[in-house]
Amino acid sequence: MAAVSITTEFLKRPLMTGAVTASSRRLARAMTQHIGLGEARLVVELGPGTGVFTDAVLRQLAPDARLVAIELNPDLAERLAASRDDKRLTVVHGAAAELADVAAGPVDAVVSGLPWTVMPTADRNRTLDAVAAALAPSGRFTTFAYLHAAWTPPGRHLAAGLRERFGTVDRSPVVWPNLPPAFVHRARAPKNLRLHRHAGSGPPA
Ligand SMILES: C[S@@+](CC[C@H](N)C(=O)[O-])C[C@H]1O[C@@H](n2cnc3c(N)ncnc32)[C@H](O)[C@@H]1O
């Protein structure tokens, strides 16, 4: 199989990839801390790429727990599935917004490497809705943001979207040993917006 990296994929599909290089192990550690992975039964990863966060999740997951990793790029999905020999891991080639179709049951944690700031707004909203709807009430969600992009309109839209959909949202310290430096949004207490939207009453205050 030809070499596949985030850098080569960025050159081929810049908007889908959204990063010039894979995240660092330090960012992977920050992404997978404080989300109860040791007790989790079902974890979903969105946009695993070459698997930096995948490996960090698997290191902490119980022997009988499951990780479903959803990757839109077929080459990256194929490479990840072929390069990890772990029966807890299922790699799905698909879109993150479809996570309810591939991860049956309440999800204990969602770890996202998605390139939110280059995603169209409608996709970003649909995917955030799908994450909040899939999580168990005690579920946790982590996603990272590049420091330099946090104050752009898409970066602010992501932060507002998290506050709209989760009762508690906080941020990790900046992870400087990452290219570029990044921090982690940590969200919990998903709100049941779907019920409110269907009832036409908007999100709860
Ligand atoms: C910024 S890279 C991060 C890769 C890896 N998690 C890391 O941190 O090194 C974004 C990844 O998300 C994938 N991706 C982009 N849009 C997606 C979508 N809608 N659903 C699933 N994966 C997606 C890209 O193909 C890419 O692998």
Mean pLDDT across the residues is 92
Beta-strand residue percentage: 15-25%
Q: Kindly, what is the distance between the CA atoms of the first and last residues, rounded to a whole number of angstroms? A: 51 Å
Radius of gyration: 16 Å
Helix-strand sequence: HHHEHEHEHEHEHEEH
Q: CATH topology, anyone?
A: Rossmann fold
By CATH, the architecture is named: 3-Layer(aba) Sandwich
Largest sheet composition: 7 strands, mixed
* The CATH H-level homologous superfamily: Vaccinia Virus protein VP39
Number of distinct helices: 9
Helix content: 25-40%
- Cofactors and ligands present? S-adenosylmethionine
SS elements, strand count: 7
Ranges where pLDDT stays below 50 over 5 or more residues in a row are 198-205
Q: Look at the helices and sheets and give the structural class.
A: alpha/beta
Number of domains: 1
CATH top level is: Alpha Beta
Descriptive terms for the model:
205 residues; alpha/beta; Rossmann fold; 7-stranded mixed beta sheet; 9 helices; 37% helix; globular; disordered C terminus; binds S-adenosylmethionine
How are the elements arranged and paired?
Elements: H1 6-12, H2 14-17, H3 25-32, E1 42-46, H4 52-60, E2 66-71, H5 74-83, E3 89-93, H6 99-102, E4 107-112, H7 121-134, E5 135-146, H8 153-165, E6 166-171, E7 182-190, H9 193-198
Helix pairs in contact: 3-4, 7-8
Bound molecules: S-adenosylmethionine (SAM).
Residues 6, 16-19, 22-23, 46-49, 52-53, 70-73, 76, 95-96, 113-115 line the site of S-adenosylmethionine.
Description:
- GO terms for molecular function: methyltransferase activity.
- Keywords: Methyltransferase, Transferase.
- Pfam families: Methyltransf_25 (PF13649).
- The protein has 205 residues and is α/β, with parallel strands linked by helices.
- It is built from nine helices and seven strands, in the order αααβαβαβαβαβαββα.
- The N and C termini lie far apart (51 Å).
- The model is unreliable at 198-205 (pLDDT under 50).
- Bound molecules: S-adenosylmethionine.
- Residues 6, 16-19, 22-23, 46-49, 52-53, 70-73, 76, 95-96, 113-115 line the site of S-adenosylmethionine.
